[in-house]
Amino acid sequence: MGSRHSTHFREGPRTLPDPRARRPRIMDLRDPRRASLGRASGNARQVIGSQSTGIKGMEYRRGNPDRIRRSTRDIRMPAQDLRSNKGFHSHHRSVKYVADDAIKQLIKLNCQLTKLTRSNCYADTLQLFKHLLSSPFLKPDHYTLSATLTACAHIPDVRVGNQLHAYSIHAGLKAYPHVTNTLLFHYAKSRDLDSVKRVFGDVDEPDVYSWTTLLSACAKLGEVGYACQVFDRMPRQNVALWNAIITGCTENGRLNIAFDLFLTMHKLGVMPDNYTLASVLSFCSADLGRQVHSLIIKSGFLDRTSVINSLVSMYFSCGNVMDAYEVFEEAKVGVCDQITYNAMINGLVSLGWDEEALKTFKDMLEACLRPTELTFS
């Protein structure tokens, strides 16, 4: 037993990875299910670094250098600490120190990635991810990938998201639910319904977010029949799922199906929320609108700004000025916002009530609400 240990410690210390060594390459993925790890065609750094299409005046290639420096100034590479720490004589203690410090630095990087994504700094998010890939001591985890994929969903070039999908398979991170859900979101934003179905088909136990993303993508991209089949397969149908399919049918002009779903929802005792009511009111006729208005009063949703805005717009679209004005006057204090006043002003002008529109504009200024471009349109 002792000799085995002594033999072990007599061995020379293993060398740390060479920082200049090439990292594994990442697949160019068009169909993730047919991907072969042996057919890699470039890594994520090359793909991210090669982008030159602008986002609001910003380039993917460089991002914002000052913001990148601020994001990484508190993040050290573990190898630097290891080389500067001459007090470490034990190789095993050194390796443990590097591993523990790498975890801390990765957590910092993940926080910065999330912060940049939530600030809509998508080019900077990709640049920081590229910086992470260049380190031989830090390896992206599922939180890293989820934050970066969220940024990919908001850029025009879908190739970056496809490459990260390949990386998630290569690195064994695709099984994490939030990575899968972010992939679904990315492909839904890219209007790639086949990839949405493919990713969803690989999920063993889809959660509510997975179901909602699939349903919403199918409905919004015109696959209303398939969306209804998906909806019937769902183990549990909450109000968010009802909203997704009703909104999708509405946006595709399937108004009869949308209203039938709303009636079915009501018969099953599922309480609609303000999003459901706003979606239904957007296409109601005067008679149906009054019925929905009665339901809103009974349900206590007259204190929701989005519902008031939809009611006002519905009555004006039906040419019913008095009902729109009554809704507006009842809810004016503390509920109406700029959108409500804009709907009132534009509705009154469109129907020839110019003096009332001018009075409503003065009321808007007295309520300390700043006019917008829509106010004068």
Shape: globular
β-strand number: 2
Q: What is the count of helical runs?
A: 20
**Helix- and strand-based class?**
mainly alpha
Mean pLDDT: 74
Query: Low-confidence runs (pLDDT<50, min 5 residues)?
Result: 1-12, 22-62, 75-98
Strand order of the largest sheet: 1-2
Helix % is 55-70%
Distance between the termini: 87 Å
Write down the Rg.
28 Å
Strand content: under 5%
User: Main beta sheet: strand number and arrangement?
Assistant: 2 strands, antiparallel
Please write the string of helix (H) and strand (E) elements. HHEEHHHHHHHHHHHHHHHHHH
How is this structure best described in words?
64% of the residues lie in helices and 1% in strands. α17 runs parallel beside α19 (338-350) and α19 (338-350) runs antiparallel to α20 (354-366). It has 20 helices and 2 strands. With 377 residues, the protein is mainly α. Strands 1-2 form a two-stranded antiparallel ribbon. It has a domain at 40-157. This is Pentatricopeptide repeat-containing protein. Residues 1-45 are annotated as: Disordered.
SSE inventory with pairings:
Blueprint: H1 2-10, H2 44-49, E1 54-55, E2 58-59, H3 65-72, H4 78-84, H5 91-118, H6 122-133, H7 142-152, H8 159-170, H9 177-189, H10 193-201, H11 208-220, H12 224-233, H13 239-251, H14 255-267, H15 274-281, H16 286-299, H17 305-317, H18 321-335, H19 338-350, H20 354-366
Antiparallel strand pairs: 1-2
Helix pairs in contact: 4-5, 5-6, 5-7, 6-7, 7-8, 7-9, 9-10, 9-11, 10-11, 11-12, 11-13, 12-13, 13-14, 13-15, 15-17, 16-17, 17-18, 17-19, 18-19, 19-20
